[in-house]
Amino acid sequence: MHKFLFYFILTPVLFADILPFQTIDKANQSYQQGDFQESAKLFRQLSISDPSVAYNEANAHYKAGQYDQALASYQRAKGVDEATRQYNMGNTHFQKGDLDKAIKSYEKSLKLREDEDTRYNLELAKKKKEQKDQQQQNQQNQENKDHKDQQDQQNKQDQQNQQKQNQQQQNKDQKDQAKQEQQEKEEKQTEQKQQQSGGKADEQKEQPNPQQQAQAQMTPQEQLTQKELKYLMKKLSEKKMPTMMYQATPEKGERDAKNPW
To answer: Which residue has the higher pLDDT, 209 or 80?
Structure first.
């Protein structure tokens, strides 16, 4: 999958260039020995503004798994073979999981030059992106489903709680209404008893004595006769002859109610 072109920097061997050449040689040796971090470090120390140095540094960073540093170095390596630079940048984006940028880099490389490895990596990146998109979509669908199920469960629980509260309130209202009706019934019964008791008392209080009522209905003449009868009955019980309680008027020979004797 990875295709690297490792450029060796060839500069005139002058006395002033002995130190950079030695550094380049050490960097190349470290790369060949697999010490990619040391190789990238040595290339980084060079002050030569040659795109091949930045390209070799980028390759070392890539092999060390330092993909962000590799991309930065590839950006400074403009001037080397562009199709290869875009290919390696595509590989670096691929390793980071940034498939969209990897696809763009592979497509740029193929526009410059057709290459079997680049074409293969492009198709692989597209396939990976499709799988990733599908996984994300499935995950999103699952999250939406879980959220919906959770919301439905919460709505169901809220509905049950509301029904329970409504039932409790209804039971309370029924109890309060029954209590109020019972209280009103008892008050009404008490009021009726008080009215009945008061009516009997008033009736007993206002009802006259039968004798008094009979006397009240008598005429004065009848009342006088009634008194005389009582007096005669009393004398008879004493075995005495009663005396007359009235005087006859000289004209009519009748008793005078006003002057009975």
So the answer is: 80
